[in-house]
User: What shape does this take?
Amino acid sequence: MKRLIILCIGLLVFADPPWIPNIRASQDPGTGNQNETTMGIRHDTLVCGGWNDNRQGVYHVGFARSSNVGISWAETLMY
Assistant: This one.
């Protein structure tokens, strides 16, 4: 059991992370309230996200999609 724990700790410390740095999916400059987020993935390439968006003072539905595993995003507000 000790060997397994040491192996797991070694993998976590020295393994390359499988993720990329944070990328902004919303074009909001940071002045609006956005909450109740949700995400979905289809076939390991299409990623979609939705949220409540209050950047204009009234809540709308925000939606963004990425067809390259989240490297870049196309965003829209639904009125």
Summary: The beta strands are 34-42, 46-53, 60-66, 74-78. The longest helix spans residues 2-14.
